[in-house]
Amino acid sequence: MADLTQTAESGVSMKELTARSGATSGAPHRRGPSLWKRSGASSYIFLSPTLLVFLTFVVFPVIFSFYLSFHKWNMFSSEKSLVGFDNYRRIIASGEFWMVLRHTLVYTLGTVPLNMVFALLVAYFLNKKIAGKRILRAAFFTPVIISPVAAAVIWRWIYEPNFGLLNYGLTSLGLPAVNWLNDPTAAMFALIVMGVWKSFGVNMVLFAAGLQGIPEHYYEAAELDGAGAFSRFWNITLPLLSPTTFFILVMSVIGSFQVFDIVYVLTSGGPLDSTKVLVFYLYEHAFKYFEMGYASAVAYLMFALIFILTLLQMRYMKNRIHYAV
Predict the structure, then answer these.
(1) 125-165 confidence digits (pLDDT tens)
(2) Alpha helices (H) in 159-277, listed in sequence order
């Protein structure tokens, strides 16, 4: 006790005293984290498989395709001839490119608004207290998890002109049958209908999550003020859903510009190139005509278009997004 008192008087802390006693008594010394752990090198060992896959199948193709966009290469030869911006000039001067861009815009303008409207209406309906709500949500979401190719095969049977389900319904009502996939005026409409059916389940779930995030006291206060159902929907639901709506709009536009699989299976760009879209146009020049440089230039022009459209949407919606407080 006297030793402790003397130590305290001399200004030596208990921590230093303990360390000294441990060193003299032969107690094991606890080392700090090793250099290996401090540097975080072990984490890179565990991340290396994912990083290797990401670098091989994402980073390298992006860089290599940009390099190819300035070259002429048929994929079977080791020689690549530098052509500069000739591929880009050729695209801009091509009437076919502007045709497929117009078809892509038509598909986007037909798919995105219908998709969002149906998804919002279904989500709003399923947000109410109704029986079988979970079963209905699962049923509406089922098309999303179906393989696009398998879904396109199913719809090809539905659109079949002789014994398809859709024409059977039309003829049962006394209406004429339509050659959906072989009529240039009907083929794009058929693609739009299937595109809406295939993807609106995701948007429905997103809208449902947004609706559940709106506080109930807004609706209670509006109801006390005498606001009707439509007034509450227009002045409360839609403004407070604007962050979700903006996200869905951007992602839907990007997805519609990248449509390929259903076009490939249902129409292969026909009839008379009436459903040929940008990605199918890229696919043809890359794997049918083996113009890899030209196809890479198309890919980067498509990226530029999507980027510009996204910026325009962000600028337009910047002051129109409202958050619940």
Answers:
(1) 988 888 888 888 888 999 999 999 999 999 999 999 888 89
(2) 165-172, 184-212, 216-224, 229-232, 238-240, 242-257, 261-266
